[in-house]
Amino acid sequence: MDDDKYETAFEIIAHAGTAKGCALEAIDASGEGDFEEADSLLKEGRDEMHACHDAQFSMLTQEANGTPVELNVILVHALDHLTMAIMTLDLAEKVIERDKRRAGISLDA
User: pLDDT of 89-101, one tens digit each?
Assistant: First the structure.
């Protein structure tokens, strides 16, 4: 794998780690009743996730154009981080929705 691909893999790891961290902080904020902060952190996490997807999309595009992407442990590690970040953000959304309902906050607003 060339240096550009390593850089892309580490970009995915960095953005996914930030996204996951934001999701966990959002859960904590929600648990404390700070829904404004929870929503803000969730948005920040989703923005980081978009950066991950942009990096991943470049690799998918390369593969689709007939230039295979070499698979190695670093790339597998990056995709593992991406998957865990997605799962953590999805879970955070559910937890925050539940906390808002328990606090009597309308989810339609």
Answer: 999 999 999 999 9
**Contact (Cβ atoms closer than 8 angstroms) between residue 106 and residue 40:** no
| R_g over Cα of the chain | 17
Whole-angstrom CA distances from 75 to 1, 19, 32, 39, 106 are 9, 18, 37, 31, 41
Q: In degrees rounded to 5, what are phi and psi of residue 61?
A: -65, -45
Instruction: Taking the CA atoms of 45, 49, 51 and 52 in sequence, report the sign of the dihedral they define.
Output: positive
Give the predicted TM-score (pTM) of the model.
0.91
Summarised one tens digit per residue, pLDDT across range 33-77 is 999 999 999 999 999 999 999 999 989 999 999 999 888 999 999
